Amino acid sequence: MTDVGALGPVYRDPTWRLERVELRLARDGVEVFVTGELSAAVSQACGRCLEPVPVVAVTAALDVRLIPRPATADSVELAPDDLDVDFYDKDEIDVGLIIETETSLALPMKPLCREGCLGLCPVCGGNRNLVQCDCQQRAPDPRLAALKNLAARFPR
Ligand SMILES: [Zn+2]
Ligand SMILES: [Zn+2]
Questions:
Q1: Where are the domains of the chain?
Q2: Taking the complete model, does pTM exceed 0.85, yes or no?
Q3: Which of 26, 120, 121, 145 has its CA 20 to 30 A from that of 76?
Q4: Total H helices, total E strands in the chain
């Protein structure tokens, strides 16, 4: 168990909070293996309406191989299985950077501010959770149109 407080602020985004991290560093020659697990609470923009989603809980397994940064950037060819290879500089391992990278990779692609978020109107850009606009969709869904016609027949 790694003391989260001892790491200091690891995220550049101050709304992200590291809650738990377990790190194991193992060295094999010049290679350093970082394994472990982290959980964090981050805020993200809703994938539909772009409003901030207050807290997204993220857990990520860490499995990173670090090799010394080559003198010239293009002198190293990474093998196909080297997806999780990173570089370190001058014997210095930036644990915070690893944590931030792995957290970002673990984020959901499309977080939603809430179940059934209506998203933004593609015509006026308004947040349809907040305002009901009367924009005509460019390509109306025929099934929706049928529903609308049906609704119009029953005055509220
Ligand atoms: Zn939303
Ligand atoms: Zn609109």
A1: 4-106, 118-156
A2: no
A3: 26
A4: 3, 4
- Look up tokens 């194991």; give the residue: 24
| Rg value, the chain, Cα | 23
> Closest Cα partner for 122 from 104, 144, 110, 140?
140
| Spacing, Cα 48 to ligand 1 middle (Å) | 5
Beta-strand runs (E) in 5-154: 17-28, 31-45, 52-68, 85-88
The CA dihedral of 28, 30, 36, 42, to the nearest 10 degrees, is 180
Ligand 1 centroid from CA 47, angstroms: 6
Which pLDDT score is estimated for 76? 59
For residue 37, the Cα-to-chain-centroid distance in whole angstroms is 16
